[in-house]
Structures are given as C-alpha cells and as structure tokens.
Amino acid sequence: xxxxxxxxxxxxxxxxxxxxxxxxxxxxxxxxxxxxxxxxxxxxxxxxxxxxxxxxxxxxxxxxxxxxxxxxxxxxxxxxxxxxxxxxxxxxxxxxxxxxxxxxxxxxxxxxxxxxxxxxxxxxxxxxxxxxxxxxxxxxxxxxxxxxxxxxxxxxxxxxxxxxxxxxxxxxxxxxxxxxxxxxxxxxxxxxxxxxxxxxxxxxxxxxxxxxxxxxxxxxxxxxxxxxxxxxxxxxxxxxxxxxxxxxxxxxxxxxxxxxxxxxxxxxxxxxxxxxxxxxxxxxxxxxxxxxxxxxxxxxxxxxxxxxxxxxxxxxxxxxxxxxxxxxxxxxxxxxxxxxxxxxxxxxxxxxxxxxxxxxxxxxxxxxxxxxxx
Length: 374
Ligand code: UD1
Description:
Layout: E1 5-11, H1 14-29, E2 33-39, H2 46-50, H3 52-56, E3 63-64, H4 72-88, E4 95-99, H5 103-115, E5 119-122, H6 134-145, E6 148-151, H7 154-162, E7 170-172, H8 176-183, H9 185-189, E8 200-204, H10 208-211, H11 214-230, E9 234-239, H12 241-244, E10 255-259, H13 263-271, E11 275-278, H14 281-290, E12 294-296, H15 304-308, E13 312-314, H16 319-332, H17 347-359
Parallel strand pairs: 1-2, 1-4, 2-3, 4-5, 5-6, 6-7, 8-9, 8-11, 9-10, 11-12, 12-13
Helix pairs in contact: 1-8, 1-17, 4-5, 5-6, 11-16
The structure holds uridine-diphosphate-N-acetylglucosamine (UD1).
C-alpha cells in the first residue's frame, strides 16, 4: 500500500531526538502515514544518543549510517555521501524533515534539495547573528534550501522573511520541546530526585565556544563554585563527552560532575533545580517551560521570547555577569509563565497538519510497493 504521506526525519545528534519524538508521536496517530528515521551516527555514545530512544519512545531508525565524529567538512561530507545513497536507493520520500541546526541536518538538507526532495525545517529562522557558531552557519544554509519552514516564535518568522524566504512556506507552530516535556511528564515526574537531597543548581556546557578551550572551563568552574558556596547549594554538572576533554582534573568545590544523562532523568533533575546555567538552546526552552530560572552562558540566544518572558538571562562568560544573573535568577525566579502561547504541547500536531496539507492533500492511498525500507 502506498502511504498517504511518506516522510523521513533525519537524526544524528542528541537534540534531534527530542524533536523527532514529537513528530513521531503525531505521525503514528494518523493512519496511512509512513514515518521513518534516518540516523547519520553523528553521535554514537550510548549516554549521548542511543540511551534516549526508549525514553522518547522512538522507533529503530530505518537507516544507520555510522558516520561518527570528525572535523566539520569531513563529518558533513561523509554524511552527505551516506544520506544520498540511502535516499536514492528507493523511491524518494515525499518530504525530508530536518530538525534544528546540527551538521546532520545541514548534510541532509543539502542532499535532499539537490535530489529534488522537499526539505521541511523544524526550528526554522532561529538566529544568534553570531557566525562564529557552526550552528548559525548550518541554520542559514538549511533555511535557504528548505521548502517548508516551521518557526518556534515570531522572531523566527521575521528572520526568514528578512532573508527572502517565501512566506507561503512559513508556519508559526511553537516549540516541539514543550510537546515532549508534557507527553513524558508522568514518566519523569515519578523518578526520584538527585541523591543527597537539598537545594541544587544544574550546569550544562557543550558548545564550541565554552567546551573546547580548557581555559574557559577553568575560569568558569571557580565562579560557579563561589556561587554555590554563597547560596548554600550544590551544582550538578552532567558532562557532554566533548566537554570532558577540557575538564581539568579535580573540578571545583560544590560542582559535582557526572556522565551525560538520558532524557527522562535529565528532565527530572532539571525540574527540581533552583537555577540552571547552560549554553544549550534546548535547555533554555525546557527550563523556562518547567519554571526553572535560567542563566545562559552566551552573549546571545536564538529564543528571544525566553528572555522577554523573564525566565532567561544572558550572562555570557564574564564572571561578574554570571554571578549577577545567578543571583537575579534565585531572587526573581522563573518569570511570567510559559515563554510563548504556542509552546503549549501541540507544535508537533501543527507541523504534521501542515505537512499533510501540503504533501498529501487530496491523495488516496493506492496499492503499490514503494520501496525496500517499509
Ligand atoms: C553537536 C551539535 C550541537 C548540539 C550538540 C548536542 C553540530 C555542529 N553541533 O555538537 O549543535 O547542540 O551536538 O550534543 O552539529 N563526541 C563523543 N561522543 C559522541 C559524540 C561526540 O565523544 O557520541 C565528541 C567527539 O570527540 C567529537 C566531539 O564530541 O569530536 C564533538 O561532537 P560533534 O557531534 O561534532 O558536536 P557536538 O559538540 O556534540
């Protein structure tokens, strides 16, 4: 039976999985739709990637390319080669969905655009306006070649329009991270909090700017250690493998590092925190949705609505700014409710509605074999 809609979502790095989970949940509810995952293998550590599949109720990928780590050009090139071979081996899907801004999403968007497969970008239009970030380069290129753009907030729509994207393909649909937080709430809320009890903060760091230079981490940890001491809390630090390489022996008093956590465990820990310090876009959104005051260790954010709602503060990596923002977070709390009215747990539903409307409108399922990957 030919599906009404044949969609492939590309995953490869941890943040892709949360977004793919929101879409898969919606696709699986609708009869006649085939939704498959293509895994590039950008991330391969169980703690960083594979361990999230059961938590997020994700199916086994139809393709596993096993590309792994490497310099940007090599990693992206290998992914493109693998994705092209995978997609062109059978009848092409109706749409290739690329979530976020990681190298896997970039590679997939380039291959699909050249193969004439429409690209749908989830989290389109987000901009930090900082072109030293590889993610910013990836986003701009993906948006330039995508046919359909799903924006989390108005700023995304504005940026796309300013870059000349066809308004007909832009949909303001909200943030799929909210969908997954809500759908999994019973599972993470029933887990125990961190061992040891007492008030705590959370720290996450993985971006090139903060994770690759040991001097940055060596400067940051004593600042957070001082903060922990002053406010009588400890700071839990699940460490990304990339950051591990820069983490010097000994750590800092009051900052407790551990392995990267699977999704449900991480959300449970985050939900009980008094404050979170992070350089991750996803964690900023999740903290604001959970009502946990957030301090962003970057000069810019792609989610300006998190700052507008009072839940997020931009501190950069300057010690005084971090201490001021941390104190403000503890005193003023999480701000005025959810960052955006459309971050309501229904973004995935809006995205799938739009995809069905655009690619399957008026189609009847017909009997025929559509390829080897069913
Ligand atoms: C990537 C994304 C980033 C995303 C992050 C989430 C790009 C450009 N960046 O960054 O936007 O927020 O994933 O985690 O795509 N490594 C391991 N094990 C793994 C994966 C990576 O040890 O499973 C180490 C490797 O040494 C590797 C380094 O981390 O060289 C960087 O990995 P890479 O996938 O290139 O980027 P991330 O830093 O994970």
